[in-house]
Amino acid sequence: MKVIFQLIIKRIGLSIITLFIVSAVVFFIANLLPGDAAQEMLGQSATPEAVAALREAYGLNDPPLTRYAKWLTGLVTGDAGMSLANSRPVSELISSRLSKSLLLAGLTTVIAVPFAMLLGIVAAMYSGRRVDKIMNIATLSMVAVPEFLLATIFVLIFAVELNWLPSLSYIPADAGVYEYFRAFALPVATLCIVLSAQMARMTRAAVLEQLSQPYVEMALLKGSPLSRAVLRHALPNAVGPIVNAVALSLSYLLGGVVIVEVIFNYPGVASLMVDAVTNRDMPLLQACAMLFCTGYLILVLIADLSAILANPKLRTGG
Amino acid sequence: MMAAIKSMPMSGKVGAVLAACWLFLALFGPWLAPHSANEIVAYDVFEPLGGDYILGTDYIGRDVFSRILDGTRFTIFIPLLAAALACSVGTLIALYSAVSHPRTDEIISRFMDALISIPSKIFSLVMIAAFGSSVPILLTITAISYMPGSFRIARSLAVNVANLDFVTVARTRGESRLYLAVKEILPNILHPMLADFGLRFVFVVLLLSSLSFLGLGVQPPEADLGSLVRENLSGLAEGAPAVIVPAIAIATITIAVNLVIDSLRGAATYAARGR
């Protein structure tokens, strides 16, 4: 037990160090080209005095390391500075959008995880058979398809041809369950397909790994049917690897959400971030980037911790 | 090479043929195009498939077929170069790491792990905001995004090989670290790194197309396949082929390469089992 505890603490410590390096990388890339932010905000016609005053106000004259330290302490205390594009606090801009992105990601997860696990387990049970081969090609293709192709095809079918659903994701203030469903159907479906394909492939590999173990062969030899061997014998042992696979695939969601929010005009953090890039609004961009990186690191941490906890050698403390 | 293709399952052969076709179009597309890519040929915008213009016209009446033939070179060659850069730089650093002092190895690996924890789309967005999006910068950004992944795979392969007897023998023989890396380890990790190169290529095609789709990738007047989808997005409501066809084109490229890699991998595991 002590061994596990030490491993977990060590793993969490590593994540924090990684997050620290990531923050340095993000900050220094974003600030590599020295302070033309003030110039950019005021435009070409601004007087040098106005630019200088603004640079002073935003602390752009400080040496980079001081600015990095200020920025980092600000982030930790929840103050990410002011947005350059619309002079509002970055934290305010993000917090109004974050819940929307989390809702989109959460809905996708709730639908995609059971679906992908079912696909993955079935493919593993019938590995090498026709079902498995067809699923292999289908998931392999879906992994390789750009999100915007799926999104445009869905819009074409369900919004343009059939006219069942809106092509933009707009939620009116007094929306009921039905409006919510209509607004979310296409974005969630797009994300689900990309995500499930990835997750199903990883789940299949995790279950297959267990199925190749001697104890499963033993169960089959003593005459238990395949479904029982999979569900009673292999699956409990595959829980760790499957949670690992699910958490790792969920990290793909972070990239997918960028495209989906933009194409459906969904007011989440990812579309905010894309706007920040177009406006070269660095404080906002840095904060969004850190948010995504932290989310990614948390998912990878969960994946690793589940692998540690599922390892029987560690569980017994040996 | 021919034998490798012959031993593939059907899906792999289909993928190989498709990939070869796309490579051909990327090389000779601009010469094959019936019109110039930026020439406005029709008064009607968003014409349907199979009229005077085989793939219809775009949002200002340019020939979609010619624009795809012209844009393919960006969608193929930027990713090819970026993937080659990512893989070779990743492999070189991995070789250096594997024959270096464990502490150097630890520092390099830790830094690469941190870089991997920045999702490639997020990394690219920050880089583009800082440096803009000209073709050389896009090439650099996509190469850097996927280099740490290549490093991680190459390093784990290289460390495994470095622990084998023949490397130990060479080391005790007093060979230099350069010799160990290049003559002993590299030949043994080359083959799996080629499969990794294919995967990176697919990743970069998807990343670059996504960036162009967001309007942050290849900039006008040049256009890759992702840009074509973006600029014609207003035609989606009327079901214009100008939106869907370039998107499908991207998918056929990536699916084709994925199918080839998958069947090569399948062949490799069968060969390993046979031994």
UniProtKB/TrEMBL annotation, chain A:
Q: Which domain of life is it from?
A: Bacteria
Pfam families xref list: BPD_transp_1 (PF00528), BPD_transp_1_N (PF19300)
GO cellular component terms attached to this protein's record: plasma membrane
Regarding the membrane, this protein is recorded as: Multi-pass membrane protein
Q: Which residues form the ABC transmembrane type-1 domain?
A: 98-303
List, alphabetically, the PROSITE patterns matched.
Answer: ABC_TM1
Q: What is this protein called?
A: Glutathione transport system permease protein gsiC
Q: Which organism is it from?
A: Paraglaciecola chathamensis S18K6
Q: What is the lineage of its organism?
A: Bacteria, Pseudomonadati, Pseudomonadota, Gammaproteobacteria, Alteromonadales
Q: Which gene produces this protein?
A: gsiC
Automatic annotation (TrEMBL), chain B:
Q: Which residues form a coiled coil?
A: none
Tell me where the transmembrane regions lie: 76-101, 122-147, 197-219, 239-261
Segments forming domain ABC transmembrane type-1: 72-261
Task: Write down the membrane topology.
Answer: Multi-pass membrane protein
**Pfam families, alphabetized:** BPD_transp_1
* Keyword hit for Transmembrane: yes
Q: Which family does it belong to?
A: Belongs to the binding-protein-dependent transport system permease family.
What this protein is called in its record is Peptide/nickel transport system permease protein
Q: Which organism does this sequence originate in?
A: Paraglaciecola chathamensis S18K6
